[in-house]
Amino acid sequence: MRTSGDPLPLTSKGVNGTDLVLDLKLSEGGFIRQGSTLNADDDTSSALTYHSYCDAMLGGEGEEKETISAEIAKLGGAEGKQTVRIAFKSKCLRTQNAWQRQLLAQQRALLDVVAGKLKAAEKTLKADEEVKEEERELLRGFRKIVRREQGAEDVQAPVEIFVVEKAQKLRAETEELCRILSYPCQSYNSFSTAMEAVAQASQSTVQRVVSMMSRNSGKSTDLLDGRPGGSLPDWRCRALCTTGRNAGNVMLETPTQIVLLGMAWLSRGLPSEWQQQGVYVVLITEAGDFEDVGRQLLASGEAEMREKLRARGICDYLIHPLSLDSLSTVISQAQERRLEEYLLLDILGRGATACVHKAKRLRDNETLALKEINMRRLRKFATEGIDRELRLLRELSWPTVVFTLDTWENEKEKLRYVVMPVLETAVACSKGSRLPVKAKVQKGKKSNILWTEWPTGMYRPSTDSRICIGAG
């Protein structure tokens, strides 16, 4: 069968999987009838509603001819062209298999195209992530990103180590090193069992933190006894900080989870929950498996190998026999990775000894206020006053007191950092200025102290670091 239109492409199969459907576009208004090409001018009325059946003989040269049924229907067209659909039906298994092979070949070609697009998108995404990490390093160098440092007063976050290795000897070796370093360690020879253990440990941590927050928040209610607004709930988010009387600078930290993964599970993808929970994954192999790791990753050198491991979510690579120093280094890197980082956006205020920045917490893009205090410019008694004030602001529970989320000190640079919420609608009041609401202004006998009635809140004294809340 031959037409004056486009070639006859194989487009789809029928409902029962044994039909062959061709879509034809005929130029110059032609259409098909019983295997012949006619002009629309010869039979205009038939061209508008054409629908017919015919039989055809198919078979290659030297092969046995086969009779198949064809259903021909005119579907209409545009711009002088008409579309005709021919649906072939055959009961011959050989013919059906040939059609199925051709359809599978087309589907494979489509899958190859989609796979190529996915690889290109993955490559672009990986390049974007590398650029972001390089930008972060540059911003850290220019002090545009401030990283929280572990202070002497901070509680050391606990560490949980999970060893996933099939070889009993390697598991025992790693467990012994963890025992020497006094870190809890759980070993498994099954990846699914290890996943359940990590998930269960994470759930237990969440329940423990919520319980501690509830217990500490209950202890802080006595601070509001006998004061206006004592019956109102605390407007602060309990998930951001503790409000207990003895909280101080103690931070509620979730344990640092480290998974030491064996060579057998390198080809398996890591669970997405591990990345969300910040699980630090380290690949551990024997020295003889180094080349096998390179071949599996298609990497030619150690640097490229580590880069491809990071792309898979694996943060580091250790080779047996492990040492105490190498394991301690991995644990330190895992703990440092969990420290908060803040991107400095703008300057909210500047004074003689401090500067307040508008900052974005990179972990969740939360906008906060980051106060940077230069401790070199302060005398000893002023330093003690700042420490006392920061402790009080962490312990005090009052709906209109600007509280602190976190504090730490950079001992090398002699800088103290204070993280606080940003009050976009706050009104700054100074001594002698007119207050935006009705307030009482009273003077103490030894120093000038300014405070207001509820609900305006807290004002700083004019001469010292005391905080006063007026009862009206």
TrEMBL record:
Superkingdom of origin: Eukaryota
SUPFAM superfamilies reported for this sequence: Protein kinase-like (PK-like)
Record domain Protein kinase: where: 342-472
GO molecular function, one term: ATP binding
InterPro entries (alphabetical): Kinase-like_dom_sf, Prot_kinase_dom, Protein_kinase_ATP_BS
Entry binding sites for ATP: K371
Gene3D superfamilies linked to this entry: Phosphorylase Kinase, domain 1
PROSITE patterns found in the cross-reference section: PROTEIN_KINASE_ATP, PROTEIN_KINASE_DOM
Keyword line: ATP-binding, Nucleotide-binding
Stated name of the protein: Protein kinase domain-containing protein
